[in-house]
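Worked Example 4.2. Consider the chain below.
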Amino acid sequence: MFLCLCVCLLDSSRDVLPTLTHRRAMVLLVLYVKAEFENIASVEFPAPDYHYCFDVKDSQSDEVREGVFMSAGDTIELENSRGEANFVVKFPDSKKQASVSFVDVKGLTTKGVVGASGEMVPVMGFECRGLELETFHPTKGVKITSEDGTVWEDVDLSEDPDGWFEYCEKGGDSVGVTEFAFEIRKHKV
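Applying the procedure from the previous section yields the following structure tokens:
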């Protein structure tokens, strides 16, 4: 049985993404993405509203859950703890909850913005306890800005395997995002 608790609490008075600065040494996972741009200034996974989709693996077994959604805007209290996380799941054979917390890794992550074509860019950090992020699946909700300032909201980069293409009336050019790729890397803080 799959248990996922999601409660969305939005509080505009506080930053939803904690910044990781002075904590004990730990390993966390960082999502790196790259794509080829044609007349595009940036691709953004807007926090806190963007729902990241991952395949997650129980760190104590081989069980994998595919297509699990999580967002920096969701805040869930952990059982038997004073802590919170952005995503919580309990695997069947596990006694404890597994959790993911979104973190901005100071000096590394870009808070969801990819502004360079063809380079792996560290967009978001994830503090994972009891699970591992295996595969990232881009979903609807991406914001794309052309070099001439035209903005497309709620774009789905997974819709067409060849990429995303549009026409920018301001610039009179075709625009596109192709060859989307990702890596999930362990990062030592």
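Residues 40 and 146 are 4 Å apart (CA to CA). DSSP finds no helices and 17 strands in the chain. Compare this with Example 4.1 before moving on.
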